[in-house]
């Protein structure tokens, strides 16, 4: 039987955070059925070298013309980009590029491949998203809100496939080991909240800081890349204003995520919904759930798919520091309830969010595309 030849694309493996997610799927595909290739716009990065070392074919070649203006220029550039790919005779072109730019879909068309992409961003206002989706054979949608709100019309509903995010359950385990607190000078008896998210305005760490301001013996570790200097200064100012310098710690990016989660009493993801921002499918939240850490998340798209209120965690109204404070206190005041939420969350991950489940769902989509 002829293998299904798939090209997986991503701009790079240095700044594009979805690289590991993409490669997790590639590694779990049945190589007796699928023949995967990878294309990047530029080489480099630790994951790039890992992929090379494992023997996968990586094509370093531009395929997106985001800077081009006007449909004629985009068509011309896409046709030129397609030429080197055409010789490979790919059956499917699977994009993990989160941009709304549709020139990659044109490149895939001119290369003779069936194009599909993964829709994670909640943005839909740009015409480019609609054009990109129209040019696609399939669109993998990462949360139910996206599916119901933007892909329910007759034109797109048959193209959309809901596949939720996943986590490596071999890496994220429930150890409940508090020793990692020593690294951050957190007292063993303190209530520790971790928030693992980029320090950017849409993640709304400010609401979490305000929520814990009046609580004794509660510590917060804000772990994440600090990409917005203005917002970072705002966070620092609020910490200082509320006198929380010794209890709210800015840890920057952390590599020992599993250890931090297991040292925590609670995980909070306080994403805002201001400016129509919500979550796609927050991997950090799935990771926390996999470690059986009791979770609290704002009631936004993506997060509400994962956290079922009072079943697998707690939800609160976005931006409401008082409501978040009450949710934290529920865990602080009832250890049995907190443990139950953590255990239920972990069971949900194993039932719905393992890498094997995700890869099998993608594989089913690829097979279905070859029947048409």
Relevant terms:
elongated, Rossmann fold, 14 helices, 372 residues, 13 strands, alpha/beta
Description:
With 372 residues, the protein is α/β, with parallel strands linked by helices. It has 2 domains: 4-166 and 354-369, 3-Layer(aba) Sandwich (Rossmann fold), CATH 3.40.50.2000; 178-352, Glycogen Phosphorylase B (Rossmann fold, 3-Layer(aba) Sandwich), CATH 3.40.50.2000. It has 14 helices and 13 strands. The chain has helices at 19-28, 46-53, 71-86, 103-111, 127-135, 144-150, 205-212, 229-241, 257-262, 283-290, 303-306, 321-333, 335-352, 355-369; strands at 4-10, 34-40, 58-60, 92-95, 114-119, 138-141, 160-162, 191-196, 218-223, 248-252, 266-269, 295-298, 314-316. Strands 3-2-1-4-5-6-7 form a 7-stranded parallel sheet. β11 (266-269), α10 (283-290) and β12 form a beta-alpha-beta unit. α1 (19-28) packs across α14, α3 packs across α4 and α7 crosses α12. The longest helix has 18 residues, at 335-352. It starts with a strand and ends with a helix.
